[in-house]
Amino acid sequence: MGRLVYSELLKTFLKKRTYLGFLIILIIVPLVEVVMKVEGGRYLSMTTRGLAMDFSILGNPFNGWFVAHSIMNSLWVQIPLLISFVAGDQLAGEATSGTYRLILIRPVSRTRVITAKYVVTVIYTVLFVLFLGGLSIGLALALLGGGDLFVIGRSIVVLASSDVAWRFCAAYLLASWGMISIAAIAFFFSSFVENAIGPIVATMGVQIVFLIISNIPSQFFDDVKPYLYTTYINVWQKCFMTLVPWDDVWKSVAALGAYSVGSFLLAWMIFVRKDILS
Questions:
Q1: Could you report the per-residue pLDDT of 21-70, keeping only the tens digit for each?
Q2: What is the pLDDT of residues 238-278, one digit of tens each?
Q3: Which of 14, 122, 126, 184 has the smallest number of CB atoms closer than 10 Å to its CB?
Q4: pTM of this prediction?
Q5: Cα–Cα distances in Å, from 79 out to 150, 151, 157, 174, 271?
Q6: How far is residue 121's CA from residue 187's CA, in Å, rounded to a whole number?
Q7: Which domain holds residue 255?
């Protein structure tokens, strides 16, 4: 199994399009962080303008941690799209290039083939998210330095500088787990189409519909929301609460894991019964 995974890793990472997402992140993150440094905290000033009348803000909350957190919040609409480029290509790409028969004449079962491809999808997803985290945090701290983290959301949270690093590590691990569920959905769509564009479009369609339903403040969808992965995908944000609600975190982890496993099993059922014609 190890040799099969290694073979699929080579096949994936020898494709130029595999690095498209990394290249986009490598351009966007430094550009945004340099602009935020040049702006000198204008974004933070605009956000906290209403608070200045009631609170005194001491020190400099506009630092590397604040910028890294802002980057993390702003890119999660685009990240699923970039991940689906590779996840959706794992099986559909073989059909597009006409190499399905070639990979299946090897003396290994279809189950091992699809498992190896799924493992590669997971590895790619984790590497991609950790690359985003390492680049955004490392560059932000280099440009602006550290300090206390000022989190602006439904409530205002200030986290001590000594309490921030582990929260970012936990947040990016949870973010990786969430992105794996999206990659698994793209992998599932990839199992029954013969064009790599189809899984990308289908995954983003599901993402958009689920996000809309999850964020509509209507009782009509309340019974549906617990079954949507988008309800749990932002579990990483809980790492930046004053007290992390670990019970809610593990519930979200379990729900996202169910989506990942379920998507893989559906893809496996389709793949092992698939009639390969080319």
A1: 899 999 999 998 898 888 766 666 665 555 555 555 555 678 889 889 98
A2: 999 989 999 999 999 999 999 999 999 999 998 888 766 55
A3: 14
A4: 0.88
A5: 24, 22, 26, 14, 27
A6: 8
A7: 2-272
Burial (CB < 10 A; 0-12, 13-18, 19+), residue 27, is exposed
Total domain count, the chain: 1
In a domain, 277, yes or no: no
Are the C-beta atoms of residues 200 and 84 closer than 8 Å to each other? Answer: yes
172 burial type by CB count under 10 A (0-12 exposed, 13-18 middle, 19+ buried): buried
Rounded Cα–Cα distance for residues 272 and 251 (Å)? 32
Contacts of 207 (CB under 8 A, 6+ apart): 80, 182, 230
Output the six-digit token pair for 5. Answer: 């995974």
> Cα 194 vs. chain centroid, distance in angstroms?
25
Find out whether 148 and 161 touch, Cβ atoms under 8 Å: yes
Task: Decide if 167 is inside a domain.
Answer: yes
The C-alpha atoms of residue 74 and residue 207 are separated, in whole angstroms, by 16
278 assigned to some structural domain = no
Query: Residue 152: phi, psi to the nearest 5?
Result: -110, 115
Whole-angstrom distance, CA of residue 192 vs CA of residue 257: 22
Neighbours of 228 (CB within 10 A): 18
- Percentage above 90 pLDDT, the chain: 37
In the 8-state DSSP scheme, what is residue 157? E
HEC secondary structure over 33-51: HHHHHHHCCHHHHHHCCCH
